[in-house]
Amino acid sequence: MTNSLLFDFTVDKSKKTVYITREFDAELSLVWDAFTKKELLDQWVAPKPMTSKTKYQDFKVGGKRFYAMVSPDGQERWALQEYTSITPKTNFKMYNAFADKDENPEPSGSEWDHTFSEHNGVTTVSIVIYNESLERLERILDGFTQGMKMSLSNLENLLASLSQRS
Amino acid sequence: MDIRRDVFQAIADPTRRAIIALIALQAMTPNALAEHFHTSRQAVSKHIKILSECELVKQEQQGREIYYSLELEKMKEIDIWLEQFRKIWETRFNQLDDLLSTIKKKKK
Q1: Of 3.30.540.10, 3.40.50.2000, 3.10.129.10, 3.30.530.20, which CATH number belongs to A7-165?
Q2: Does the model's ipTM exceed the 0.85 cut?
């Protein structure tokens, strides 16, 4: 059913940029809401078994969303997003930085650019993530894998078998 | 006990992953690398040593400086790791698919 929907993911290390394009079987206004309203964001943005909780969100240019990814053992990883540009139902940009629980952001973050379009009831979302530091990109993954121990141990097995072969 | 290091051990540490990411962009001297981290140059050197033992990093002498660069063959294994990153997004988007279809049903 959803298998025919496009999913494109590329990383350009030299440009420190991740490109993601995905189609959704829903009208644009609904998908726009899912990306811009905290009630909906918190329901999908954290890959299970992690959960997302938004402390507050003010979706306007200069406004912020302060939220945490929570791992199954209760560890919170806070991040602060500031909306830098909003063109309703077309595009929004934000600056994302990890933060402590008191909203103090880390010095380097990433710029996110989301573009939305709809054709025949299918909505395409293109996301471009530019990371000021690649170290940060690594740590995003690190944070997620902490909550995904199972897939990490799968990876461990895979890499172990690969290194035996070499 | 098998003391040979493997690629997973190399990427099990966040600092080493960051070093890998940095030298993937360009060959770098130990000093240039150390500037990217809050730890001492010695600590960075220790990580580079482990990466070398895992055959992920090779070194080249250019004049008086040593440059570290990535072993491209081993990069393939790191690409597998990057694949994990892609999977996170896949998981997220599948969750969003479910959410969207739930909302659509409610609307009817």
Answers
A1: 3.30.530.20
A2: no
